[in-house]
Amino acid sequence: MASNSLQLASLSTNAIIRTAMASPPLALIALRNLPSKSHFPKTFCTFTPSRILPRQPPSPTHPFRPRRFTSKNTLTPFFETSTPKGDLPSLTSTWRPPPETSLDDRPVLIIGAGTIGRRIALIWASNARPVVLYDISDDALRSATEYLTDNLGAYCAARGTHPGHVCTTSKLRVATTTGRYDSDSSPSSRSDAEDIEIHSGSKGPWLAIECLPENLDLKMDVLSTFEHYLPRDCVIASNSSSLMTSEMVSRNELHFSERLLNTHYFIPPRNRMVEVMSSTKTLPEIFPFLEKQMKRMGLTPMIVPRGVQSDGFIFNRIWAACKRETLAVLAEGVASPGDVDALFRDFFHAEKGPCERMDEVGLDTVARVQGHNLEKRPEAKGREGLEWLKKNYVTKKKLGEKTGDGLFTREEREGLRERHRLDRFKEVEETQGA
């Protein structure tokens, strides 16, 4: 009887060992999700939702499991021309909308931390969603971090939402794999590649928005580099204010034209309209999916009818004519920037006139866009005003808000801000009195 008991115990022990070997504990695999920043000195986190909201358990749609490695160069810098060998497969009929439950874990990637990029990052991070802000310039990332620190909390308070996790980085592979890095993580001896692999449980961004200067060659170079690292279900959008994605597709240099489209933001978060236009090859199912997600962020998408291509989209075609004549009036000495804007405020009851708005965007960007418009529409006059802007402001680095002085000086702009504040206060008083 004793020997039978020993035999049964031995069999039970062997069965337990076999079961354990067949199904190893998840605790070891779960270490993949531990945050680390020790090997990412240029990666910064400005907001962590776990400090505001209770930490949520991992989504059941994203089980922890080992990833397959490919022969990609993990250290390819941003503008290096070398890319992983081999063509990417066609994705014509394989795109499916990412599950709604995964979007709270997967970040939105913003490529370019300039004036507009950081503002778009604020919008997408305003509903407890993770965001990765990528730029090769440390100064741009530092400035963007300051902007988000000063504005994200207040914007979320106004909307009644919670700020999401915002990660700023200058590393390409970090930007395209995850957005979950904790600022107070402990040191680690892992290599960059190992760290990236450990953090790639989020499956990378579900939306990537390019916010680069208005230069088609630059945009093509950057997007063709990123396409080798972004997930295959990632929607890729260009924020270009004048370049149509159909121009990018026509070069036949990109493999993801079915997921590429224009999403032109204005100056968020104040302006929440977004012009959305197809690349002529964009899959039709992307539009309702993206429209739904934008509305969740408080944005108002305006979709250009499918099959219609408009250089300058909707608003910019009208705005270009206004800028062109404004610059001509200034170049000829007919009026000062203050005079022009005063007329707009009085006649159109506009909060800001064209000169102040051009200073906000950046006069270098204005010059590039106006130059592009003149190339596309040579019959439109305005070359003299553009050359005047370049000579007196762009070449002297007087670019508007981003440098301090522009069409208005820093001091004049402070006075305008005070005027706007008083005007808004006056409107509130009049409304209450009514």
Could you explain how this protein is built, in words?
By secondary structure, the protein is of the alpha/beta class. The protein has two domains: 34-54 and 90-303, Rossmann fold; 315-428, Orthogonal Bundle (N-(1-d-carboxylethyl)-l-norvaline Dehydrogenase, domain 2), CATH 1.10.1040.10. Helix content is 43%, strand content 9%. The protein has helices spanning 2-22, 26-30, 115-124, 138-159, 172-177, 192-199, 216-226, 245-249, 286-296, 315-331, 337-348, 354-361, 363-376, 383-394, 410-433; strands spanning 44-47, 108-111, 131-134, 166-169, 207-210, 235-238, 260-265, 273-278, 300-303. It has a nine-stranded mixed beta sheet. Helix 3 runs parallel beside helix 4, helix 10 (315-331) crosses helix 14 (383-394) and helix 13 packs antiparallel against helix 14 (383-394). The longest helix is centred in the last third of the chain and has 24 residues, at 410-433. The chain is globular, with a radius of gyration of 26 Å. Pfam families: 3HCDH, 3HCDH_N. This is Mitochondrial of Hydroxyacyl-coenzyme A dehydrogenase. Residues 312-408 form the 3-hydroxyacyl-CoA dehydrogenase C-terminal domain. One of its GO terms (biological process) is fatty acid metabolic process. It comes from Podospora australis.
